[in-house]
Write a structure and sequence with these properties.
The complex is a heterodimer.
Chain A lengths: L4 H10 L4 H7 L2 H5 L1 H16 L7 H12 E2 L5 E3 L16 H13 L31 H12 L14 H10 L2 E2 L7 H8 L2 H17 L6 H25 L1 H5 L8 H4 L4 H23 L1 H21 L6 H21 L4 H23 L2 H7 L4 H4 L1 H25 L5 H5 L1 H17 L2 H24 L21
Antiparallel strand pairs in A: 1-2
Helix pairs in contact in A: 1-4, 6-7, 10-11, 10-16, 10-23, 11-14, 11-15, 11-16, 14-15, 15-16, 16-17, 17-20, 17-23, 20-22, 22-23
Chain B lengths: L29 H12 L18 E2 L11 E2 L8 H45 L4 E2 L1 H14 L1 H41 L3
Antiparallel strand pairs in B: 1-2
The chains are: A mainly alpha, B mainly alpha.
Protein name (chain A): Protoheme IX farnesyltransferase, mitochondrial
GO cellular component, one term (chain A): mitochondrial membrane
Keywords (chain A): Heme biosynthesis, Membrane, Mitochondrion, Signal, Transferase, Transit peptide, Transmembrane, Transmembrane helix
Amino acid sequence: MYVPARACMVTITKCPLFLGLVGASVSQKLLGNASINYQTARSLIHLYRKDPSNWITYQQLHFLKRQYVTKGSSELHQRAVPKQTPAIPVLDERDDSVVQRVQHVQAIYPPHPADIMPQPDDVTSEEVVLPVISNALPSAERTLLKKGSERETSNETPHLHVETDEAREARLDRQWKELKVDVSELPGVYARLAKSRLTALVVVTAAAGFAMAPVPFDPGMFALACLGTGLASCSANSINQYFEVPFDSNMNRTKNRPLVRGQISPLHAVSFALACGVPGVALLTLAVNPLTGFLGALNIFLYTCCYTPLKRLSIVNTWVGAVVGAIPPVMGWTAATGSLDPAALLMGAFLYSWQFPHFNALSWNLREDYSRGGYRMMSVTHPDMCRRVALRHSVALVGLSCLGPAAGLTTWTFPLVSLPINLYISYLALRFYHRADRGSARKLFFCSLWHLPMLLLLALTCKKPAKEQSGADLPSANPVPS
Amino acid sequence: MVVVCPIYRPEQIGPWCRSSVIRVRGRGCRLGWHVAIGHQAKDCVRSSAFQPAPDSTHDWIGPPNRLSNIRPITYHVPAQESALEERLRRLRQQTEVWNHEFWAYQNVAFNKLLLDLFSVLLLALFTGRKHTLGSEEMALFYKSFLDTNRTRHANYNKEWYRRNFRITLLMGRVALTNAWKTVTNRTPSSSPS
């Protein structure tokens, strides 16, 4: 039965004698928690009715989330029995005092095993779907919030941190930085701009493709291919960051990128990208072979001009991104052999299929940020399809492994030795499909991180020996550079 | 500057909440809400009146804005600023304000809609009708937010790419012009008179 909330609450508080009659038509939970719920709901409705210019919704939402949402199951549960918190103070008209109030309330929360303060960079600490809390908070305030959550008991007197206007001004003034390029910091800036860890993984997959090729191992060509691929990847990543500055500044995961922080200018970033991309592609084309150079250029184009804009237009971006991830091992193969074989395409197919459980699991925990940032990802718009596709491609990895011997990539042992890890990732994908919660998404993501190197290593150990090498033993287990 | 407003209808956030949206007095007019959000979005990017030291010759970048997360930049105006440099500076300043307005509106609107969802949740709690909010319902909310703002986002993307390219090209031109000036100014002094 729909009972207008305000009427219900007013009735309860004003007419205790009437409580019995009202109680008959109101649920038992409501009776038990009436006064506390009343306070909370009243302030909520007060919030709602306030002038929009006072909605500092990050902090308020965070507060509400802490009040009403628990961890521990696959769904967002409302708390039927609220914690013993005092009545929420009526929120002040001034925007900044809201921040202070939130800090105050945080400090006196009683400890609850399920309520862990979400660290801004750890998206996996809660089941709660709610976003974005301290996104807008300067780091000082965030630290204060964190400290508040570490307090043990509600019996202490709450620590009131009231910041004067002057102190706040001073704090904000200290956060202004001169836009001067610090040469000593440049290597670090370039590493972050080029997404060095991602580039390293891309180079590893290209190296695996090179090593799997059934030709004598040429260290010189190997080094050139890895270098060229690495440079192309740096260039693509830099252009991607150059395009996405305002979007990155609004997402927790990416708000500390160099261009967002202004450590280098956009022109500098583009120059760096050109300085990496042009020599990289030239190296691949001239020193390795034109096919590899073409694939490198194609990959840069696909990543910067197709994937990056598509991220905001359609969910097709995930499939384009999977192709982008599949090309490096093919590049490695063509660098070694100079031709595109079915086995090369199979290596690419491994990476293509792997991208889906990897990315879908990652994006599951970032739905709020993606939605607010305007990114169209499967996890945001088609969550069912997101999990289904991740499961489908995890299972496809098993099938692709069986194709290894058929395509001449590996011996018949490969499908057998890779079966355990493929089954494990499929099991995690199945769990993710059924549970659809942050925990299973996180597990699937972390599994995908070690699954790929393991798969490549196993493929390398089961590499099909080249028959034309008479007498010479092929280095079938080349150490993969990491 | 006119802020384009999304059209938000309660039924777009899910069938289960259609009948339970709180009708708060004075908020029946959605246009009023849009205008109010727009006013808030026009709030200044700068959160403090910071002024760099007068002898500083570089630009200064500040902390991210509370609403839009855009970092304000205070530009250093050199004594002999060329027309090109002035054009670049004005374009960057204008782009910063434009970005701030878009993102402030976006973030406030998104969080306001989330707050609506919470209000509905509370109501459902009181009436005992519903106690959980699963991922599918949240996905409906996220999807509706993206769908109602689709055109707005697409227009923003196009305009952002255009501005970004223009700024970078202007920066390139300014850098080349300055380098050329440095070289040509040095040549008469380096040649023996």
